Here is the input.
Amino acid sequence: MSLAPVMDWQLLPFDALSARQLHDLLQLRSAVFVVEQACVFQDIDGADPLALHLLGHRAGQLLAYARCFAPGLKCAEVSIGRVITVLEHRGTGLGHALMRQALESVAQRWGPQPVRIGAQARLKQFYVGHGFVDLNRPYIEDGIAHLEMLRPAAVISSPSTERPA
Here is the structure.
């Protein structure tokens, strides 16, 4: 079952986030990136004020989140990071819906152009399904294997983006 049709998506600059929205997104990021992945790292990295925050709610609960950056802020290209869904909704297609929404949002905001990500290596196929290419520049970040990946500007969504994630 895909959750995409019932999701309420918001793309907000940092200063437009309510205290509740900021609390919920930081709580979700901490629950997954720090607790679930057993990774001690500085999640609040100073980049949040520069980002647009994509929030995916269903029935008032934050289920999906990503951070989007204009070109030139994190890297030369548009970038997307902190891509996350709540554990209970993984495997439902929500992750794919989140990536589609993030890619649509950055294209609407900054026009069609390449998108760069630092992906956890275990999620390579997920991102390949959204048009990203592994640049063969693996690295370790906070003890987790990552890949530098780029999605060319001309990529059109493929049918593989419909698989549950």
Remarks:
- Residues 157-165 have pLDDT under 50 and may be disordered.
- The first strand starts at residue 8 and ends at 13.
- The helical segments are 19-36, 94-110, 124-128.
